[in-house]
């Protein structure tokens, strides 16, 4: 069997075009969706992520605002900015780029963002909403994976899903979202004994561990759908996922490449959530 490669770039492009049309409609009604991005410190990777997010906003016509703070800024100053943005009617989404410097209390920062503007989906209200199945904003990376599965007409209901990785931003929300699609879900993590005995049962295997080559062909069931969320930079400079792409491609029915799979969907779903937020405001007549 040779797997079909899921093209994340093409799927992301399609969703961005759809977002652009929705933005145009909102603009005609007098609302331009707005995303505020807060960046603290000089982490080069974070600066690149923020740049990509701003570029994606420009591409679909979402107004973006950037607030940069030095790494030694007091937490109170950032909290004050978030509160200001919560009140700003031109801002429909607020994002604080992670990681934050050590002296920050992350949970306090996330709790200060209004749940109605929490387009990253990390506020406790939205996390709780995920558990009961009515979150305001699904977190972007797992939301992107769900969209990729759906746009490729991959059946989720009744399937055995194994999620490798249990982080708050990828693994756990991914598992909850697929459970809500009526899959039978198992979550594995670093302390899971004999990972292969779980992964081999998966009809859909989602891997988000940040470990290159963690998943090799003998751990994958023939015909499985394999979604590789991992992004790892090797010492050679090459960017790879967590899955042995060449080997597993010979066994899986579908597979996502790295780069060009889940990655492009993450930023796209952030824009999608921001547009949805502006539509919600418009519909409520506020
Ligand atoms: P994280 O916070 O470091 O969490 C990694 C998870 O993987 C943890 O739950 C950890 O288990 C588990 N894990 C680590 N080694 C393992 C092993 N050998 N076997 C089984 N499980 C293992 O990372 P994250 O933020 O979720 O990100 C995961 C990967 O996805 C990273 O490569 C990251 O760069 C990538 N990522 C990609 C996108 C995208 O847009 N494509 C977005 C976000 C993240 P414990 O809980 O037991 O420690």
Describe the 3D structure.
The protein is of the alpha/beta class. It folds into 2 domains: 30-116, Rossmann fold (3-Layer(aba) Sandwich), CATH 3.40.50.10860; 140-263, NAD(P)-binding Rossmann-like Domain (Rossmann fold, 3-Layer(aba) Sandwich), CATH 3.40.50. Helix content is 42%, strand content 15%. It has 10 helices and 11 strands. It has helices at 8-28, 44-60, 75-87, 106-112, 124-132, 140-151, 171-180, 195-199, 245-249, 263-284; strands spanning 4-5, 34-40, 63-69, 93-96, 160-164, 184-188, 204-207, 225-228, 232-233, 239-240, 254-255. The strands form 3 sheets. It has a 6-stranded parallel beta sheet. The protein starts with a strand and ends with a helix. NADP nicotinamide-adenine-dinucleotide phosphate (NAP) is lined by residues 141, 164-167, 169-171, 188-192, 195, 208-211, 214, 229-232, 262-263, 266.
By CATH, the superfamily of the largest domain comes out as NAD(P)-binding Rossmann-like Domain
CATH architecture of the largest domain: 3-Layer(aba) Sandwich
Biggest pleated-sheet summary: 6 strands, parallel
Supply the helix-strand structural class. Answer: alpha/beta
Task: Give the averaged pLDDT, no decimals.
Answer: 97
Radius of gyration: 19 Å
Shape: globular
Beta fraction = 15-25%
| Span of the ends, CA to CA | 54 Å
Top CATH class of the largest domain: Alpha Beta
Q: Give me the strand/helix succession.
A: EHEHEHEHHHEHEHEEEEHEH
Strand order of the largest sheet: 1-11-8-7-5-6
CATH topology of the largest domain: Rossmann fold
Question: Number of domains in the coordinates?
Answer: 2
Say how many strands there are: 11
Distinct bound molecules:
NADP nicotinamide-adenine-dinucleotide phosphate
Uncertain runs are none
Number of helices: 10
């Amino acid at each position: 069997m040779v797997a079909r490669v899921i093209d994340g770039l093409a799927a992301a492009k399609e969703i961005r075009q759809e977002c652009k049309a929705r933005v145009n409609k909102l603009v005609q009604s007098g609302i331009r969706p707005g995303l505020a991005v807060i960046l603290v410190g000089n982490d080069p990777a974070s600066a690149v992520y923020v740049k990509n997010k701003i570029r994606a906003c420009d591409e679909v016509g979402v107004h973006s605002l950037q607030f940069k703070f030095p790494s030694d800024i007091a937490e109170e100053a950032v909290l004050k900015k978030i509160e200001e943005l919560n009140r700003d009617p031109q801002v429909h989404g607020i994002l604080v780029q992670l990681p934050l410097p050590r002296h920050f209390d992350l949970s306090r920062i996330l709790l200060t963002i209004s749940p109605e503007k929490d387009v990253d989906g990390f506020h406790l209200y939205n996390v709780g909403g995920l558990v009961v199945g009515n979150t305001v904003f699904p977190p972007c990376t797992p939301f992107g994976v769900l969209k990729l599965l759906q746009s490729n007409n991959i059946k989720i209901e009744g399937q055995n899903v194994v999620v490798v990785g249990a982080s708050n931003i990828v693994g756990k929300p991914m598992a909850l979202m697929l459970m809500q699609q009526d899959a039978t879900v198992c979550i594995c993590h670093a302390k899971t004994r004999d990972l292969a005995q779980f992964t081999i049962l998966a009809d859909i295997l989602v891997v988000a561990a940040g470990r290159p080559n963690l998943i090799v062909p003998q751990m994958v069931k023939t015909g499985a759908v394999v979604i590789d969320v991992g992004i790892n930079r090797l010492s050679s400079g090459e960017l790879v996922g967590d899955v042995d792409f060449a080997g597993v491609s010979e066994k899986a029915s579908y597979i996502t490449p790295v780069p060009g799979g889940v990655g492009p969907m993450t930023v796209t779903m952030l824009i999608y959530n921001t547009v949805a937020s502006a539509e919600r405001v418009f519909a409520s007549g506020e």
